Amino acid sequence: MTKVTYHLPDGTMSKIEVAPGQSIMIGSVNNNLPGIVAECGGSCACATCHVHIAGEYNELFAEPSDEETELIAYLDGADEESRLSCQLIVGDFDSEVHVRVADSR
Prior knowledge:
Ubiquitin-like (UB roll); alpha+beta; five-stranded mixed sheet; single chain
């Protein structure tokens, strides 16, 4: 299990263990964390699971698909660290990962 620390929009943090093969989004939804809505259930169609992830973690995840890149381009508050948490699939690695959940207000 990989430890994922979610930095929530209200300034709090939650550390969750996410199993390899699951997405960062699923870890949040399964633990009822606020901020990741996941309206499309993880099919890369809605962008309601927007997070920011520091470049140091990029090598742990697959490159963004064209669909993900296009959805992010239309988000308010998107930046070079923006990703959709449904597309961040946890592998079998020992690193702790920190993600900042985008403020959707």
